[in-house]
Amino acid sequence: MNLMPEFRCHHPASLDEAVKLKSSLPESRFLGGGTDLIVNLRRGLGEPSDLIDLGGIADYGSVRQVDGALWVGAGITLAELARRPEIASTYPALATAALAVAGPTHRASATLGGNLCQDTRCIFYNQSDWWREGNGFCLKYKGDRCHVVVKSDRCYATYHGDIAPVLIALGAEAAILAPAGMRRAAIETLYREDGAQYLTLAPEEALAAVVLPPPVAGRRVGYEKARVRDAVDFPLAGVAVALRREGDVLAELRVAITGTNSAPLLLNTADLIGKPWDEAAATRLVEILRKTANVLRTTVTGAKYRRRALHRMTRGLIDRLWNDDGQVEQG
Ligand SMILES: Cc1cc2nc3c(=O)[nH]c(=O)nc-3n(C[C@H](O)[C@H](O)[C@H](O)COP(=O)(O)OP(=O)(O)OC[C@H]3O[C@@H](n4cnc5c(N)ncnc54)[C@H](O)[C@@H]3O)c2cc1C
To answer: What is the pLDDT of residue 214?
Structure first.
């Protein structure tokens, strides 16, 4: 661990004040629960001039119904997210994903906003400063080459967040605040496939809330992740599925993956809609997964295992939701 770098800490009273501060301080960072950012700073990954602590903002973690949609403030802790009756009863797959993040002490302070905006990860990046220096640093930070894909001109660090895929499968949106005002965007558009520049948010923009769409009748939603330690671990691969069955055909199938690429991704499942979920459909889905998931040597666990786990989990989860075996989560 490194010593903490020197920085000033600000405690704005409102999110408006926070985004104004951010735009006047180009080297600053927002601070949620700090369970991602502070760990990285202790490893010498970043030297912000200022931290803008969002923790004291009133209503930043509030939950409210607006026209049938549920607005969940980005400051809600993951422990609270999993506990809220509105979430547990209507969007239980979201509660499942929140409970799958890290351990209980992390979840007590980790926020929804910090989870969605968490840094990408790689075995050549999440290391001590001296280790990275010995390796000539890397394209994500301080270096000029990617050690995962050596001839690449972009970073392949992987996004390992648990919450984003569920929100993508649900068709949720982000409410984003900038000094100029609020805008809304589908969760999947917050990300880009570049491990170093993985967020599409402008530097002065903050995630204010997540907007969960009204529940869809007959929709079944689930989330699964593969990890080494059940107690505390990032997803080596994760998959969220929202499925609606009409008789013997799929009326809706939204599949979002994490832990495989530099961004959480929504699969293009258009050619499976209107057809039964059978062996042919499962084979086609594995083809789509092969084309979309780009599992590389970014974790200690081998890429081949992660690829297989992803295929197996996705197949199993869709089987389960299709058959509605009583353990299915409506959402
Ligand atoms: C041992 C360990 C295990 C972990 N396991 C998991 C896991 O299994 N699954 C998982 O998903 N994560 C895991 N994490 C990562 C992390 O704990 C969680 O992602 C957590 O939810 C991050 O939230 P936070 O509020 O602490 O974020 P912070 O650390 O405060 O912030 C993270 C990033 O988000 C930015 N940010 C925060 N809020 C906003 C906002 N409102 N708008 C814009 N940017 C913002 C910050 O500037 C920073 O760049 C783990 C971390 C550790 C240390």
So the answer is: 97
CA angle (274 as vertex; 269, 276 as ends), nearest 5: 90
Cα angle vertex 232, ends 229, 238, to 5°? Answer: 75
Cα 117 to ligand 1 centre (Å): 7
Give dist(CA 255, CA 242) in Å, integer.
Answer: 7
Kindly give the parts of the chain with pLDDT less than 50: 326-329, 331
User: What 8-state DSSP symbol labels residue 158?
Assistant: B
Q: How far apart are CA 278 and CA 288, in angstroms?
A: 15
Q: What is the set of domains in the chain, with CATH numbers?
A: 1-54 (3.30.43.10), 63-117+158-212 (3.30.465.10), 219-323 (3.30.390.50)
According to the model, what pLDDT value does residue 328 have?
Answer: 45
Q: Which of 22, 37, 53 to mutate to test the pocket of ligand 1 (most atoms within 8 A of CB)?
A: 37
Is 31 near ligand 1, meaning CB less than 6 Å away?
yes
Q: Residue 24, exposed/middle/buried by CB under 10 A (0-12, 13-18, 19+)?
A: exposed
